[in-house]
């Protein structure tokens, strides 16, 4: 008895007598019958059964009127000798049809179960989950319980059956939700980590690139050390690209959003794609014309495609194989979206996609959930960042990824982007404020990183500006007020302690409404523009920046390019 689950724990010994169809007398006088029921309304069944006369009429009345569960009585061969209406309704058979059947006729698979053997041979009760087959052939999950009983010295089996399809579905939904929450928390934690590291590295790269550039401007072409400095600059640029991949994973990469046709993007890249895969790989295209447009960064979409094709080529490895690139549009309902990566809060609707399939080695089921983790790779030579960056880019575009894979047959990864139609105003663009006052003279640099402040000061001084320095928002406000209106432009970092960039921006605008402010950030440029749209922001300077970029932006902001 102790082996039974808690909800089936109500085991009652009762003196039940019933007259079966074949005339045998069912009595627990020789061996007490074990009536097992789940806690809840089955208590009413048991209480009613005990209060009735110990006759077939009492047993059937209790079973018929009080139970929502299926109740059966079967002989040792499994042939039904009694079924209640609930069991008939559950199975879709009439009472007469079931009495001509055995319990194996409704079990899937149709064979004796350990529970049947336990009750019949060992005379011990038990509970298990099983798959039952209805009259129409459909299958459903059920929880069944069986216990032994004697009828005039002959053994019988009393059974309870409950349809747990809804409960099983709820449990599966709960587990899926838990997995989704855990995955979202993992992605968020990794994204925050990657974004934080990338932000700090960008500040370091500002110093490395800035100093290298300043050094190169002072070295004569024939200087022996010039090549060394050029190498430093080149490697720093490579490091900056790696940082951009980390920012892409965090969903905070640099996005320049525009209306795109995914088929056009793929068509423009065919030559590049074909030379980037191994010689034993053949690329086939299945492209749909006149797709709805998507709002996306063309460079980032190209990066997604390159990452997916590179991954497909590596999956084929040394064997010959085919890589197929498809584009198309599809209507995605919530059920489809729930089965994708990054399904949080995505709306049902039309999505355009780029799909890359390969005939490579495939991905084992236990690995599929890990392929988008940063630096995870099953390849000895793999970098492990390509698919992680892809995930971040798709996250930044409010899209989703769908993965299909079968070991030794290949994989398909579909990148979905929400479609837009007509002249949608979904695209937010940078609008530099047109002002008559040139941004020349004194520039206030506000950043909590000393390296960034130092390099910005050196670059600005080289460009001919006077420079004031502040390491947080409070110092910036004080320096701005002390300057008495001499500051013509502010380079403002967004992420700072004490008073952050956004609060400092509001205060500067309160003091001087037409002050020109340029945000410095290593994060998503489009996100910054969207955040400050309509607030008079004149520009965004992405870290790490070069002297040329700084000069061009200051010239644009000052209006000198319109003179």
In brief, what are we looking at here?
The protein has 563 residues and is an alpha+beta fold. It has 18 helices and 22 strands.
Would you mind describing this structure in some detail?
The chain has 563 residues and is an alpha+beta fold. The chain has four domains: 6-163, 2-Layer Sandwich (Beta-Lactamase); 173-250, Signal transduction histidine kinase, dimerisation/phosphotransfer (DHp) domain (Helix Hairpins); 257-420, Histidine kinase-like ATPase, C-terminal domain (Heat Shock Protein 90); 442-562, Response regulator (Rossmann fold). It is 40% helix and 25% strand. The chain has helices at residues 42-51, 56-66, 85-91, 95-99, 114-121, 165-218, 226-250, 262-268, 270-276, 298-316, 334-338, 365-368, 386-396, 450-462, 473-482, 501-511, 525-532, 547-558, and strands at 10-14, 17-19, 25-27, 33-37, 70-74, 80-83, 107-108, 126-133, 139-151, 154-163, 257-260, 281-286, 293-297, 321-332, 349-358, 400-406, 410-420, 442-446, 466-470, 487-493, 516-521, 539-542. A hairpin with a 3-residue loop joins strand 16 (400-406) and strand 17. The longest helix is centred in the middle third of the chain and has 54 residues, at 165-218. The model is unreliable at 1-56, 380-384 and 423-439 (pLDDT under 50).
